[in-house]
Structure formats: C-alpha cells, structure tokens
Specification:
- By secondary structure, the protein is an all-alpha fold.
- The chain has one domain: Cytochrome Bc1 Complex, Chain D, domain 2 (Orthogonal Bundle).
- The protein contains five helices and no strands.
- Helix 1 crosses helix 5 and helix 3 crosses helix 5.
- The longest helix is centred in the N-terminal third of the chain and has 29 residues.
- It is globular and about 30 Å long.
Length: 101
C-alpha cells in the first residue's frame, strides 16, 4: 500500500511539474505578445486552442515563418524559438489547457 501511495505521489508531482514547465515557458517566451484569455499583440491562447490542433500549434512554434500562410495569416512577426521537443510538448499542452475558456 505504501508503494502504491508513493507511486501515485510521484506521478502526481510529474503531472504538476509538466504544467509548471508549460506555464514557465509561456512566461519566458510568449507573455510579451500573448496572454491566456485576453487579446494582446498576438491572439490569446484561448483563441489559439479553440482553432488549432496540438500538431498545428507545435508546427507554428517550431517554424512560424514557414507556417503562417497555411494558417491564413498575411504575415508573421512571431519569433522563432529554439525549444527542445519536451519544451514544445509542454508549451503546446499549456496552450491547449485554455481550450473552451
């Protein structure tokens, strides 16, 4: 029983830290242009999450200059970041957590 509780606690902390990583990445890289639910320079995460799949969000994060036309934008001013696959995963999950908000 103690092992079960320990495993559950470890898994819970991993899930919680994943959310914190996405939030931290947002605060570090995105907050200047995007807000969670309000319009800033770029669209809010709630709008992005309601319109885009996880794969589309990740593709745009990876290469905004090659994706903006596919998304129907006339131009892009989004900075291209050099994020790891794990960071892109965390950030896209954080963005999608605003779907329906």
């Amino acid at each position: 029983m103690k092992k079960y509780i320990l495993v559950l606690a470890v898994l819970s902390s991993l899930l919680y830290s994943k959310d914190l990583n996405g939030k931290k990445l947002f605060e570090t890289h995105c907050w200047g242009c995007h807000h969670q639910t309000a319009v800033a320079f770029g669209p809010p995460f709630s709008e992005i999450a309601s319109k885009r799949t996880k794969e589309e969000i990740q593709a745009y994060i990876i290469s905004p200059k090659s994706m903006y036309k596919a998304f129907g934008y006339k131009r892009t001013v989004m900075t291209q970041f050099n994020l790891s696959d794990a960071e892109i995963e965390s950030l896209s999950e954080y963005i999608l957590s605003y779907k329906g908000k």
